Amino acid sequence: MQHLDQVKPGDLLLLDRGYPSFWLLFLMKAKGIDFCVRLKEDWWLKVKGITESSEKERIVTFTLPKKDRAKLKDFPNMLDTEITCGLIKVELENGEKEVLCTSLTDSKTYLYEEFEQQI
Predict the structure, then answer these.
(1) 3-state SS of the chain: helix, strand, coil percent to 5?
(2) What is the mean pLDDT of residues 34-53?
(3) Phi, psi of 111, rounded to the nearest 5 degrees
(4) Cβ distance 88 to 99 under 8 Å?
(5) Strand partners, 63
(6) Domain regions of the chain by residue span
(7) Closest to 88 (Cα-Cα) out of 47, 43, 33, 29
């Protein structure tokens, strides 16, 4: 949380597997911070769904869980809002699959290959 105060709209925050939570994704959206988060395969059913599919990318929409509402009390407009993120599945050289969750959802601007090359 302390680091988020240093991030400004227009920055891209990269987060590893230990960081993701739904309230954090909502908070970054509320603050206008773009993000790309590496997820564990079993972190969320939607991640498991893309991992088990032949898709390389998928747009997902979701709401803030009720248990996390208190964490966004300073952003009441986000409490009953859906946010949209992109899930991107990349296969590593060793055959493992990485799934990224990103706010960068415009596939014409942010090409799959660019994400794939960065892993």
Answers:
(1) 30, 30, 40
(2) 90
(3) -75, 145
(4) yes
(5) 82
(6) 35-103+111-119
(7) 47
